[in-house]
Amino acid sequence: MPEWSKFLVPSAFIFVPTVGGFVNAYAVHAKFFKESEKWYNEDLKKPAWTPPNWVFAPVWTTLYTGMGYASYLVYRDGNGFKGDAAGALALYGTQLALNWAWTPIFFGARKMGLGALEIVTTAGCVAGCIYMFWGINKNASYLMMPYLAWLCLASSINIWVWMNNKPAVKNE
Q: Where are the transmembrane segments (predicted)?
């Protein structure tokens, strides 16, 4: 294996979730930015534990980097997509797709209840990844734990927002 590929392969594993997450967020927010910003920041009641908006980009950059490197470690130590890592990496791909689906559900479609169900499902898949990664590379499991913690926080915010911002029922 050439010396440069020792850095290229892990970088590719980090690149995919990071760029995918930001492209997804940009695409949704670019289309609905002014409406989404006003809706989320001004129209919705949010719990006191909601982080300020400036926190999200650095947190997600860190989390995507960690989860990408974790997937590389599992790929490397589990003999790739056809080895012991195959199931763990399939679950990883599932959670990544679910991760990317939340933004258009919550911000694009403004489906807070569906967003809550989706983010809790994502957290369950991440917990499964932590469990499956453990048998292949313990450090990969550890790298996924902050992501699960963040998803638990985000889930609690999503559920609180959903429960406290239900549309009024019209009497006809």
A: 54-75, 87-107, 113-134, 146-163
pLDDT in tens, 71-99: 999 999 998 888 889 999 999 999 999 99
SS3 of 17-51: HHHHHHHHHHHHHHHHHHHHHHHHHHHCCCCCCCC
Tell me the Ramachandran region of residue 171: left when phi exceeds 0, alpha when psi lies from -120 to 50, beta otherwise. Answer: beta
- Confidence class for position 108, pLDDT limits 50, 70, 90: confident
Angle between helices 5-38 and 56-77 (to 10 degrees): 150
23 lies in some domain: no
Q: Which residues span the domain enclosing 81?
A: 32-163
Single-letter amino acid, residue 112: M
Q: What is the CATH number of the domain that holds 109?
A: 1.20.1260.100
When divided into structural domains, the chain yields a total of 1
